[in-house]
Model the fold of this input.
Amino acid sequence: MRENFRREGDGRRGSSPSHRQRLRSLLDVRSVAGQVFVLQLALVVLLVLAAVLALVFQAQNATMREARQRSVVGAETFAHAPGTLAAMESAHPTALLQPQAEAARKRSGLDYIVAFRPDGVRWTHPDPRLIGTRVVLGSVRPALHGERSTTTLNSSLGPAVNTVTPVIGPDHHVVGLVSAGIRLQKTGELIAGQLPLLLGSAAGVLLLAVAGTALVNRRLRRQTHGLDPAAMYRMYDHHHAVLHAVREGVLIVSSDGRLLLANDEARRLLELPADAEQNRRPIADLGLEPRLSALLTSGREATDEVHLSGDRLLAVNVRPTAPYGGPAGSAVTLRDTTELQALTGRAEVAQERLRLIHDAGLRIGTTLDVGRTAAELADVAVPRFADVVTVELLEPVLRGDEPETATTADLRRMAVRGVPQESAIYQVGDVIRFVPGTPMAVGLESRRPVFVADLRGSDAWRRQDPEGTQRVLDARMRSLIAVPLQARGVVLGLANFWRSDHSDDFEEEDLSFAEELTARAAISIDNARRYTREHTTAVTLQRSLLPQVLPEQSALDVAHRYLPAQAGVGGDWFDVIPLPGARVALAVGDVVGHGLHAAATMGRLRTAVHNFSALDLPPDELLSHLDELVSHIDTDEERAASRAAGGRGEGAGETVRPGIGSDTDGVRPDGGRTGITGATCLYAIYEPVAGRVTLARAGHPGPAVVAPDGGVTFPEVPVSPPLGLGGSVPVETAELTLPQGSRLVLYTNGLVEDRNRDIGTGLDLLRAALATGADRTPEQTCTAVLDAMLSEHPSDDIALLVARTHLLDPARVAEWEVASDPAAVAPVRAACLRTLESWGLEALEFTTELILSELITNAIRYGAQPIRVRLLHDRALICEVSDGTSASPHLRRAATTDEGGRGLFLVAQFAQRWGTRYTPGGKVIWTEQTLDEGRRERGPDAAEDILDQWDDVPAL
Done:
């Protein structure tokens, strides 16, 4: 085809244009090559400029991003550096923090690192003159709430990228803030240093692009210049052939509505006569559908309008021809969409089902409640998949148990949607047992969905309840799909999908969709079932660890409440422990976190408190021993976790403090537990003779006291660190003297503190709830407090203990001073016997005389002044002998030749209980004897029998 093209120039062989002529031809906009060259050149220039600007902005953004990262890293590193928290809490934070801040600033390349108090007063600054001045708190308010913030602001050193990080103390309060920043001037200098490289690169790219564009256009000019008419005719012929070969109809309609051109596909689709195009017949005379004919002659534009032509659906596009250089008229394209419409219908159904599956994933399983999840399945399916949906679950699923598959098992209806419940055969809550052979029973047995296309002709379905199923048929229900709800190989229940005459019939392909829909719901129901089982187990464990029945005692009237949080069981606990001397110990504690670990930890602490109370320790010593025990437990568990994580050796594990409100609290990253660090406790001992209560607390909220006249106070009780964190810090106590009828209120922080209120607001609400109703009983007080303070969704456990005080009648208390003389035993013993007679306890005279003789004689012989004897007439007869020494007698086995060592054995045999209690001035040896004479008669014969068997029992 070389003869179809002519060379550029004068036409003579061997002639070649000069460089100036070539450049002029390139820039000649009258030629196609010149226009293309100019457009390409402009486009290249624009692209290069855009690239340069993009690189500049990218460099600026990268520099700013680096500045922000350096600011964040500097602030976070200094805020969490070892010693920062301790320095902020010290007496001279500036002296400790300023050298560290300046050293960190120089190492990190930042312009400043400033530490300041929550009220804005600076502790450190690169300019020492600004130390002690205040910062503007407007930009650091997120940090005051425990959140890090990064902003661009005008600092004291000029515009800078600034990051503020809070330093949070062990009590989760903000102790101080750290601000680190870098000036924007420095970032601008970095960007300016990169500009020469960017501009040089852009210039090089521009030169290369211009050279490449010139080469491309020269080749284009050479290939297209001098195209002759023969080539144009051949091009037309090729396009004409393509026009008749396409599978899309093409029409050209004149402005007066006549047919000018129709290709073969248009003739086939419209069934046009052979002379329609040749005679330029009007469109209206071609026998087309009226709507289609009106569109073709209207001259208006149309895009993919669907019109009927015979039995075909055609997608019609109409465009005017005048704007493209032809005569006025319209160009029409036709496309057969009959099969496409059918495919589109199926695609829409599939798309709707995908949307339904997506919505099911979002709407089913929003809670861990079995019944609610079943109802969510019904809500999603009606009316988008079925007209009516019913859901039944096996009875064990509701209890959290794993059900055993059985066709005759009991199911409970959990949801009905699409019809009023009163019109359903079974209503929500009814127990159903499906008759064998019914579609529901078959589905449960086979674990496969069952499809009933026509309920009217199904005798098996009507076998369940002929009268009830007739009502269903009268409601125009026509078809049914029964799908078993199964997850992890376990059948949990049944979902039934119903359609009426108002909807299309179920088809076989609906079975797989119904199965997929119920499978998603079954997973959520099974998760809820497993949660119910775990929650029930945890609640059962916790309830078993809390006091089931309060012990009998006369000193206090006690009422209590325990409410678990919605997030799960926790570690709040309480206890009432009778002590010798008619005294009573009250304990309230809290273990941080939720779940089985917190409940088990609570049980360990409560057992430890019981054990330490048996030693009759004062509150401060008991909490000190409890703190030491918790520290040992933490250390042992940390070592075990370290060995389990890879044998790093004892003590190598890093302790992770437990958080609040999660079942995974207290779990280490390596799978170990962090013990029970974070537990708190308040321990109080009430003594009814003097009405005195001694209290000590370890990280726990203090008590409230309601006076008999209704006045409410929160006495100051020295607070010690939480258990396991006390170390060498001594525990301090407080003593209160309470009038008879006072109410002592002990509680955990879940009562007064919540995510929506601080502890100050909670204490005010508690004061208001206690102040009303001075004559309330402890039970009424508990109810009133919870009614006033319990939130709708408590985030923490609540333990509440209300104790009303009683004083022991002075007539039931007798006390004597004893001289250090054996002759003083007889007068004191005689006075005690007279007191017993006045109390009507003559039956206890012999044993009491024996016990007092032994205890007073030992006190005179081995003790020191002052020596006192006290009798208390309470639920038991209590004998107390005190002296000024701390040496305590103990049971031992006496040898055959020993003259002594048997007196304390006799005391232990005749008394129901006995023991020793240490006081600041010495000790008290006490005994208790029952008043109901339940023990066998005591007398000389019984004593002789005991002494005859002396060789076989322990002795003093």
